[in-house]
Structures are given as C-alpha cells and as structure tokens.
Amino acid sequence: MLRWILIVVLVMVLVAGAGVGWWLYQNRADPVPPGTPARPAAASLDPAIVPVSPNAPVPTAAGVAKQLAKPLKDPALGKLTGQVSDPLTGKVLWSQGADEPRVPASNAKILTASAVLLALPHDSRVSTEVVFGANGEAILVGAGDPTLTSTPAGEPSFYSSPGRISDLAEQIKRSGRHVTSIAVDTSLFTGPTMQKTWDRRDIEGGDITPIESLMVDGGRLKPNDEYSPRTDQPALAAGRALAEALGLNSPVAETTAPSGAPVIASVKSAPLTVRVGDMMRYSDNVLAESLGIELAEATGGEPSISGGAQAVLKTLRTNGFDVGDATLVDSSGLSYSDRVPASLLDELMSAAAGNGRPKLRSLLDSLPVAHGTGTLADRFFPASTDGAGWVRGKTGTLTGVSSLTGTVQTVDGRVLAFAMISGGTSPADARPAVDAVVGALRDCGCRG
Prior knowledge:
alpha+beta; Beta-lactamase; 2 domains; five-stranded antiparallel β-sheet; five-stranded mixed β-sheet; 13 helices; 14 strands; disordered N terminus; transmembrane helix; D-alanyl-D-alanine carboxypeptidase; membrane; transmembrane
C-alpha cells in the first residue's frame, strides 16, 4: 500500500551556502506584482531519498487543527481557504472554506497537468512537420508544440529536449528540394488566440503570447530568458527562424498546407511527462494552454483556448473528481475568471500521492522543492519557516492572490497533501504567511 509513497517522497536535505549563477537563473519564481522584495540567493542542495516508514503514526484532525492554530491567525493571509488530507487513508484532516470556488492563479495548472496525465499517453510527442508546396515554398505546419526551439543544435534551450528549427533546416537541405520561400500554417487551432480576460500587456511582460499552433521558444524574444518579453506574432516568428536557418531573405507568408503535400522535414517534442514537468516547474502559461488544447484535440473537443479548459474539467469529471463548482476559462490560471475550490486541488494532490491513481504519480516529480528548486527556490527560509526541503508544491500568484498546493512529509514520516488559497492581501505578505501554515505541517505529529 505504501509502495508509491516510498518511491515518490523525495527529500532535499538543505546545506548552508549560496547558490548563484545559471542554476538560480533557471529556477526563478513566479512573476509577482510590483513591490515584491528582491530575490535573495538560494541555498545549495544535497539531494537524498528518505523512505517513509510503513509504521508512521496516523495524524488526527484534532492534532492538525491544533498545529495550525497559531499560523492561521496571521492577518497577512487575508481570506484563506484550504484543506489538508492524508493520502494513505483519503481522510480530510483539516478544512476551512475548502468548497468555496476561489481564484486559483497558477494552481489551475494542477488541474491541467492532472487531466492530461490521466487522458494522454505519457510517452506521446508532438510532431512538427515541413511540407513542400508549390513554386519552391516550404510550409512549416503548426502542431501545437510551443517548445520547438530556435536555438541551434548543441546549444542550451529553455525547454527540455525540444525539437529544433536547425534540425528541420538540415533535413530540408538534405531533401533535395529547392526551397525559395517559407510559409506557416496555423490552421490546427481555432478560436481567439488570446482569452478575452487576459491583459495584452502581459505579452510584453513575458507571461503570455498569442496561442497559435506554431511558435518557437514559447514565443520568447530571448529564447533562454524565462521572463523575456514575448512576440505578438509567434507563428510568423517561427517561420522567420526557419527562413534564417536556411539563409532565405524572402518574407514569410501565412497559408494552409495543401492536402497530400510531401513531408520534407519533421521533429518531435519531448514526451508528455517531460513537457508537463516543464510546465509545472516554470509555471509556464503558454505551455499550459498548449497542453490543454492538445488534450481537447485528443478527446474530441475544440482545439482552442476555451476548448482546452473545457477538456480539462471534462476529463477530471470522467475520472471521478468533483469539479461541479469549478470554472475554467483557460488552462493556465492566468485569468481572474477561473474559480477552483481548495478541496479539488487537495483531492488531486492526495490522489497523486496515494494509491489507485498511477497515472498521476509523475505529477509529484514535477513539483518544485521548498527552498530548493523552481518557483519555490526562494521560499521557506529555514531561519523563519519550517518545511524547507520537505515541502513540494505548485505556486500560484496574481495580484491579491497567493496559492500553494502540494505535499509535505511530517517529522513522524507521514505524507500529507494540502491546498491553500489566500486572497485580499499583497503576495509579498501572503507568501511567507502561507509558507508558515504549510511549514507547521512539517512539525506535525498531530496525533492528538
């Protein structure tokens, strides 16, 4: 019964020291509103695996409530709803307004990740092709892979193991076809490329790009800069990258590839689980939206932003999760119109950490480690908050919203799942307050 728990509970043992340079650059936290303090250096890590004892004491609801009483009094939490559960028993140990739908921010990505892992083959890849059209025109056909990169072979890329424009260019050169121009085909996706509640200023801010079926580097103008401004014409930018790789100076056109056109080049994305991992670690909105649309296309839905959001909820419902009070207008959580109860977030996390949902197990591997990796690298400072190295979680940040959902191993060796949604206060204040609540669970024997 404890088999998976024994495998997935990875404990990062913290060692004193400062982490600087490229590692810190790659593991920056979610964007937060102006006024957030500057990032301190992250601690270095010595990874270790500590198995959970099969005889770990069982916590009680009364014990958890007692343990959380003090940190829950912090006014910086604003309005807090949340839930804590025991994945082994499925028992809810603490709940506060958990059934109330709240703005989840990027915790909505937990729904997206769970849905695609439940519905799609974990080794599935997206294939991007170039077909040969008329009059020397090569058509780059969008297949919904935002991880396709413009960085040349052998150079670092932002996303893990992506397909490369340089590989497409080499295949085209070897095809024997005389290519004189490049066109792009984005006909796979339908509907608006921006959800109506999104702020177009977030394109320049680096949070989003128009969601087209073809792009490179998630639409980033600087391919390896996580928070780089994005292009507002991602498909054309991808076409220009291919033209440049081929040494072509002609303008890039938009077209629809003719049926039966011969394929002269193709590359594949990383497997689904790798892409889900990148989405979760970097809280990548563009990748989340693309995964939602990939799910919609695979399950008979509309391949659009709204279709992706609907497919996420439909898939979770089909798999027995209570999504009745949840509302999603996107798959990333970028919209303030999204509403998700903490109970659903906790239920998904508990399912991933417990038994009976093997398809969700890789979700745990994608979660950042407190004070160690990803969007939790600069949180849970040991001097002020327990939980560093023992908490794994998905962050969520919008103006006035701070959420955190994940797992924590208690001092008694028990794994607990949790979901917390704070609203109405500054994220700069709410984040450490939420961390204190979750950190208190680390010290929780909670047997009485």
